[in-house]
Amino acid sequence: MASPESHAFVRAHCVQSLAKNVKQYFVRSYEGGQATSSFGFPIDFGDAVGRIVAHADGYIGIKTSPNRFCVIPTTLCSVIPNVGDDVAVSFYKAMRFDGKRVSGVDDGDGSRYCLGNSTQFPVTWTPDPEVGRYERDPYGAESKTQISNPYLIDMVRQLEEIKCHDGRLLVSVLRDAYVEGLAFKDPSFDQSWNPDRTLWPAIEMRARNHAGDQFNFAIRYNRGNDTYSIDSGGDSFDNVHFDELVDVICPILDDDSWRMAKVTITKVARKLKPLKVAA
C-alpha cells in the first residue's frame, strides 16, 4: 500500500529514473507502523534494498527494482542517505519471546503463518466449557508453559487484546522491552487471594527501557481489589484498572523508536570530479 503523498512524491521526483521502456511502476510507502494484509491482519513490512533516487519534500525514494519504489519519510529514517547511495532498510518485525519472528520464517521448517503476525505469550491452557473458554495453543515452535489460574488466563488475554495508542498490542510493547526471564506465577485458584503480593497471579520478566536501563518488571493481579499492580524496578503502581494498563506501562517501556526504519548505507554514491575548464 502507498499513501497519496508518496505517489505524488514518486511522480515528481522518482519517475525520471525509470527506463524508457518501462510502462508502469509500483510504489509502497512506510508510514511508521505494521503493514496490514488484504484480510486485515498485521504483517511484517518487507525490507527494502536498492538505490536512493530522490530526497525531497521530507521523503526519500528507493528504487528497489527496475519498476518499483519504496518511499520513506525522512523523520522515520535512522540515517538519512544521499541520492545515489545504495541502502538496505529493515523495518519493525513482530517477535516471539524466544527471539524469533512471529511469522515463523525463523523456525527453519519452511512454515509461515498467514493469519497475522501478532505476538502471543508462550502459554497454553485447557478448555473450560462452564466459562466458555476454548483450548489454547499459540502458533510457533517456541516452548510453551501450561497455566490454569483463571485470573492469569484473563491477564494474558487482556494483554494480547488491548491496543496501545500507536496501534500495537500491549503484549508487543512487553516483548520489545523483554530481556530475559519470562515467568508466569500460576497459583491455585484458592491462593489468588494471598496477602503476599509476590504470590499473586503475575507475569514477570527482566525488561529494558528506552534509555537502555534493565530492571525487573511484573504485572500482578490483585484479586482483592480486582485491579492490577505494576512493579518496575523499585517502583510500584497499584490499583491499575485494565483500561489504564496502556497509560501506565507504555511510558515505562516504550519511546516509539520501534517505528524507525533502520537504514544501512551499503555503498556511498560516487562523487563526480569537477570538469576542468580549458584556459
Order of helices and strands: HEEEEEEEEEHHEEEEEHE
Span between termini: 55 Å
Strand content: 25-35%
Low-confidence stretches: none
Structural features, described:
There is one protein chain. With 279 residues, the protein is α+β, with helices and mostly antiparallel strands. The chain has two domains: 4-91, no CATH class; 123-258, no CATH class. The protein is built from four helices and 15 strands. It has helices spanning 4-13, 150-161, 170-177, 245-253, and strands spanning 26-29, 35-36, 42-43, 48-56, 59-65, 68-73, 86-90, 123-124, 145-146, 178-185, 202-208, 214-222, 227-232, 235-240, 262-267. It has a six-stranded mixed sheet, covered by helices on one side. A five-stranded antiparallel sheet has the order 10-11-12-13-14. A hairpin with a 2-residue loop joins strand 13 (227-232) and strand 14 (235-240). The radius of gyration is 24 Å and the shape is elongated. The termini are far apart.
Brief account:
This protein has 279 residues and is of the alpha+beta class.
Tags for this model:
single chain; five-stranded antiparallel sheet; 15 strands; 2 domains; 4 helices; alpha+beta; elongated; about 15% helix; about 280 residues; six-stranded mixed sheet
